[in-house]
Amino acid sequence: MCVYVCVSSLRCSGPKLKSCMLSSVPVLSWLPRYSLRDNAIGDLISGISVGIMHLPQGMAYALLAAVPPVFGLYSSFYPILIYFIFGSSKHISVGKFFTIVMIGGVTERLAPDTNFMMYDNATNQSMVNVLARDTERVKVAAAVTFLSGLFQMLLGLVKFGFVVTYLSEPLVRGYTTGAAIHVIVSQLKYTFGISPKRHSGPFALIFVKVCYLVPETNIGTLVVSLVSIIGLVMVKELNTYLGKKLPVPIPVELLGIIIATVVSWQVNLEGKYGVEVVGEIPSGLQPPVMPTASLFGQVIGDAFALSVVGYGIAISLGRIFALKYGYKVDSNQELIALGLSNTIGGVFQCFAISCSMSRTMVQESTGGKTQVASALSAMVILVIMLWIGALFEELPKAVLAAIIYVNLQGMMKQFMDIPTLWKSNKVDMLVWVATLILTVLFNPDIGLAASIAFSMLTVIFRTQLPKYSLLGQVPETDIYRPVENYNQVNEIPGVVIFHSSATLYFANAEMYQDALAEKSGIDITKLISQKKKAEAKRLRKEKKEARKAKKDAKKNAQDWVRRRSGTEEIIPVLLDYYAGNVLGECLMDDPSMSCPVQEGEPDSSENEVEKGVATVEEGSKPDSTLPRAIILELSPVNFLDTVGVKTLRNVTGVIENLESGGFFSEKVSKACLFSSIHDAVLHCQTDRAKMNKDDEVKHTNTHGHDTCWLLAALF
Fold first, then answer.
1. Coil, strand or helix at 407
2. How distant is the alpha carbon of residue 166 from its chain centre?
3. What is the pLDDT of residue 134?
4. Looking at the whole model, is its pTM more than 0.85?
5. Sequence-ordered list of residues with C-beta below 8 angstroms from that of 432, at least 6 positions apart, any chain
6. Any alpha helices (H) in 121-218, and if so which ranges?
7. Of the four listed, 175, 276, 317, 591, which is most buried by Cβ atoms within 10 Å?
8. Which stretches of the chain drop beneath a pLDDT of 70?
9. What pLDDT, in 10s, does the model give residues 193-217?
C-alpha cells in the first residue's frame, strides 16, 4: 500500500502537470483572465508613472553600485520582465533599491582605482583608466548578481522561504537604516566634488579623509547639490499636500534631471566649473555575457547576504499589499522569481534587484492592479535606452546623488522607532540599535550576519531569564494573575501556583528549580538529596532481604533434597537449580517446606514506595508553614528537552518518566495533569478537605514535614 502511494504521487498526469505549470509560472494563471475593462487604464497610467521614476532612480542607483549609469537602466528592464512572468505579487515594483550599496562595496573592493592607474604623457601625471576600471566593476557586479540569484533559486526550490522569519521587523528596519547611512556616505564625494579613497572591510564607513578633503570642495558641485535637494524636497512635500487632488503625482525626479541636463548643457557646468557629469550613454542593449566564474569565490558571502536581504524586503512589502487586497503571496515562488530575475539579469550585466517602497506606493496609488503595470514601465525604459538615453549625457552626478538623498527620507524617519520601541518593548529596541551599529561599523554583509546572531541571542536570553511569579485568584472567578502585579488577587491557602514566562529547557532548568524553591519556601535541593538517601536506604534493605531470602532458600532446598534422596551426593548438583528458582516459585510438592516469600503477602516497604506514601515518624508533627500543594502552571511550555524532563522529575519527587520519554507511570498518572489552573486548585481544595476529616494522615514526605503535591496545569 505504501509503495502504491509513493508511485502514484510520483506519477505524472495531465492535471498534475497543469497545476505544476500554473504554480511555477503564475502569469499563465492570471493573464488569460486579465480584464481590460477593469484593469487596463489603471495599469497603463501606473506603468508610465513608474517607468518615468525608473529613469532617474536607475541612473542614480548605478552610482551606488559603482558602475556607469546606463547599467542602472538595464537593471530596470530585464529583471522586471522576468518578475512579470514568475512573480506572485500583483502590486510590488521590483528593480533597484538602496541595498545595492552592498554591491558598490564589493566592486570598489575588487576593482579599486589604484589597480587602474596610468601615466598621462600630456600632463605628466598619473590618472585612472576609467574605461578599464568600469569594465572590471561591471564584471564584479554581474558576478555578485548572478550568484545572488542562484542562492535565491536554490532556497526557493528547497522550500526555504521561511528564512525571512528570522528577520524580525526591528532587525530589518535597523538594518535598512544602517544601509541608508552607508548610501549617504558613499554619495558625499558627488555632493562635494571630492575624490576620497574608498576603504573596505570593518570600520570602512569612518571616512576621516572626507573631512580632510572638505576644504577642496568644488563650489559649483556643492551649489548644484543643494539646489537640487531643496527643489526635490519642496516638490515632494507639494505632492504629499496635494496627493488626493492630483490624479498622478508630479514626476519631480524626471523634471529634476531634465532641468539639470538643460542647465548643464547651456552653462557648460563641466567645462567652466568642473562639475562631474554622467558622460557617454550608449544607445541600444548589451549582448548577454556569462559572468566571470573566477570571481565567485571572492563574492560568495556578499552574494548570499544580498540574496537574503533583497528577498526579505520584497516579501515584506508583498505580504503588506496581499493582505490589503485579499490575495496570497507564495514565499517560495517569490524566491524563485527574484532568483531568476537576478540570474538572468546578471547575464545581461544588471545589478541585483529587490523591491522599492516609493515605486510600489506610486504603482498602487496610480491605479496599478497587476504586474502588467510593471511590464509597461519596462517598455518605457526600453524606449529611453533605444532613443532618448543619449540626451542625458550632460546630467550632473550631483543631481543623481540628490535624488538618492531625498529618496532616503523614509529610511531616516525610522530613527523615530527608537522612542516607540523604548515604550513598548526594550528588547526590540536593543535589537534595532544593535543592528544599526553593527551594520554601520561592519558593513552591510558582515553586519547582517552579526545582527541575526544578536537577534537570536536575545531570544535565548528571553527564555533563559524568564520572569517567575506566584499566581493568585481573582475573587469569584476562575482567572489567575501574578500576585505582585495585581492588588485584588488572593493567594489560595496552602496552595502555591508557580508560573514561568518561558518554556523549560536546559538553559533555564536550574534557575527554574531555584525560583520554585524561593517562591514556595521549600528547599528543593535538600528535598531531592533526602529523597535519594531514602531511595538508597530502600534499595539496601531490599538487597539485604533478597540475600537473606536466597540463603533461606538454599537451606530449605538442601533439607528437601536430603529428605527426598537420602544421600548427600546429589545435593551440590541440585542446590544451584533450586536456589535459583525458589524465589520465583515455591516448591509446593512438600507442604512442610516454607517459602521465603509467601504468595499474597507483599513486602510492606515496597508497597509503601509504590504508593508514594511514607508514614510520618511517630511523635513528629507536620510543618504547617509549608504549602499543602504546589501547582506548576505550564501553559508557556511548548517543548521539553531531556534536561527539562529531569527537572520536572526532580521537583515533583515521584515522577519517573514523561509519557513520550517517561513522565507518566502507574505511580503518577495523568490525574496529576489538569486543563486549567482552576481545576487544579479545586482538586487541591477538595482533597485537602477529605484529608482533614481523616484521623490518620499519610504524607508524601521524606523529611518529616508536611506533604507537597505538585500538579501541572496546562491551558
1. helix
2. 1
3. 93
4. no
5. 170, 171, 173, 174, 417, 418, 421
6. 130-157, 169-186, 188-192, 208-213
7. 175
8. 1-13, 198-210, 523-525, 527-528, 558, 560-627, 639-640, 648-676, 687-715
9. 988 776 666 666 556 666 777 888 9
Pairing of strands 495-500, 354-355: unpaired
Q: Exposed, middle or buried: residue 278 (CB in 10 Å: 0-12, 13-18, 19+)?
A: buried
Q: What is the pLDDT of residue 690?
A: 63
Coil, strand or helix at 639: coil
Q: What is the pLDDT of residue 497?
A: 86
Distance CA 156, CA 336 (A): 5
Which long-range contacts does 193-199 make (Cβ < 8 Å, 24+ apart)?
A: 193/217, 193/218, 193/220, 193/221, 193/222, 193/274, 193/275, 193/276, 193/398, 194/218, 197/113, 198/108, 198/109, 198/112, 198/113
CB under 8 Å to 344, separation ≥6 — which residues?
78, 79, 82, 149
Name 622's Cβ contacts closer than 8 Å, sequence gap at least 6.
616, 697, 699, 701, 705, 706, 707
Region of 188 (left: φ > 0; alpha: ψ -120 to 50; beta: rest) is alpha
Distance from CA of residue 415 to its chain's centroid?
22
Pairing mode of beta strands 495-500, 468-473: antiparallel
Question: Could you report how far apart the first and last alpha carbons of the chain are, in Å?
Answer: 39
Distance in angstroms (rounded) separating the CA atoms of residues 322 and 318: 6
**Phi, psi at 274, each rounded to 5°:** 70, 25
31 CB contacts (<8 Å, ≥6 apart)?
Answer: none
The dihedral region occupied by 293, where left means phi > 0, alpha psi between -120 and 50, and beta the remainder, is alpha
- Residue 317's identity, in one-letter code, is L
Contacts 24+ apart (CB under 8 A), 592-596: 593/556, 593/559, 593/560, 594/556, 595/556, 596/548, 596/549, 596/550, 596/552, 596/553, 596/556
Please tell me the predicted confidence (pLDDT) of residue 664: 53
The most distant pair of C-alpha atoms in the chain lies apart, rounded to whole Å, by 137
